[in-house]
Amino acid sequence: MVSTQVSPTAISTNGTVQSSIAEPGRSLYDIAIEQFHLAADILDLDHGWRAILTHCKRELAVNFPVKMDDGSIEVFTGYRVQHNIARGPAKGGLRYHQNVSIDEVRALSMWMTWKCAVVNIPFGGAKGGITVDPKRLSLSELERMTRRFAAEISVLIGPDRDIPAPDVNTTPQIMAWILDTYSMNAGHSVPGVVTGKPVNVGGSVGRNEATGRGVVFAIQEACRRSGFALEGARVVVQGFGNVGSVAARMAAAAGASVVGISDVTGGIYNPKGLDMAAVVHHTAQDGSVRGFTGADAVTNAELLTLPCDILIPAALEKQITEQNADKVTARLIAEAANGPTTPEADTILHDKGVVVLPDIFANAGGVTVSYFEWVQALQAFAWSENEVNSRLQTIMVRAFNDVYEIAQEHNISMRTAALVLAVKRVVDATQTLGIFP
Ligand code: NAD
Fold this sequence. Notes:
This protein has about 425 residues and is an alpha/beta fold. It contains 14 helices and 12 strands. It is globular and about 55 Å long. Mean pLDDT is about 95; it is low at about 5-25.
């Protein structure tokens, strides 16, 4: 047993977080904690370790005013949460979405800790966001909201402390505004304070595509190890944003047949394979996949159960649940999104023999190239795209095999194996550091 000397009096008896602002019902954070305990059981972690790792180290909530274009004032709520910094500065994206809540941000920050540990990059985990539907804001409102939020969370962020990046509905331009706001206050340019920024202000080539590219590297290695060919495999992708669109294009480029795609407006399906160039052209013109003529329209619910070999959920959390897991036809699921599969669905999929490449591994390409971007910023030296992509591939392949060995050794799912690997690395680092004072 790995044990700690933490007093149990400060924490709940089951190692879960007691929060006065938790949502009713089971939150995403409850799911993250459930997943953690499966790994903690295998590692035989005692109560103290569970208590440390099921609490977020720092949580900042900010309520701040923004002047709207019509002269009115709106108050927005945002968060920045750092789950753990034992392995390095905190790292994680910022999400702008109407469903952003403290519990969602906690879960995503915990998954960032595990993700950075799975791919063995020297970061801890953080996440943030604003509860807003950014589509209802003008560009100048979006900029003012972003800059004010950056100023509000500047007490936590910094190139050696906590480095934000894009997530749902946040873009390289938004990262540039955060970089500029932070730099204006510092009095000099601080390019290492965010990643996922545009290349002309110190971003890395290959960062925009990194998460989707990493998903495809993960799938390729999974296919290689399990002896089935990606060439000709039927692929369905939910979500056609930064991650999903790149994953779909790269899977097609690797020889797969992308038969279904969706975004928030609904899905499209062609069992003979979608013409990816035409879909990309259509979405660039119309802003969504809806109305694409070379396919049948399907709902997002139907999309997840379409006949296919590989399913890539690349939208939001809790999409594959006990309601639809049994109807999933894919043999392999690569979680490009964070938290798309509930624990109940995980069990159903495991029993059906479906391999799930878990989010904390499958979508780690983004944070890996964010790490490369941060290193380039600190060194003021830009790498070539080839170097970025080939280092990314090396890390994804190594991480797959690290996780796969643990899964084989303990006869457990790839998710639990990835968590075992990650949690052990975080525990080891904390043990080496010791518990202050
Ligand atoms: P994005 O905003 O660029 O795209 C999100 C896509 O999902 C859009 O196409 C949107 O229309 C679609 N969508 C939203 N709600 C939907 C719904 N209910 N049903 C179907 N589609 C829906 O976001 P992104 O950066 O591509 O992130 C997607 C997922 O990947 C998120 O879970 C995010 O946390 C995760 N992720 C992103 C990165 C990154 O580098 N951007 C890294 C790791 C993980």
